[in-house]
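Deliverable D4.2, example record:
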Amino acid sequence: QCCHKRLRKRYFMATGAWPFDRLRTNGLVPDAILHSSTISACKKGKQWSEALSLLAVMQKVELMPDVISYSTAISACAKNDEWQQALSLFVAMQDGVLIPDVIIYSAAISACERG
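Output generated by the structure prediction step:
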């Protein structure tokens, strides 16, 4: 319960809103998996900028994006011919503690092919 309250407060302070209100009413807290799934939905819906926003929100509320979060966001950018954004994410990921895997490299290469 204490962690739940702290996470809600960090999320609200970082974003000024709580986009997952329905979850909260059911006693659930958005986690990295939910954010990654939402990023994936943005990718499928061709909403690359929203995918990037969600990735930024994850960092603001101290939900560290994982390789899946980054690969999905990079793919969202690649799918929408935003190769510069995809490569920026690729570089940013490497500046952090994450090590790119085959999926990340493939997504970055795909972005460059489209660019």
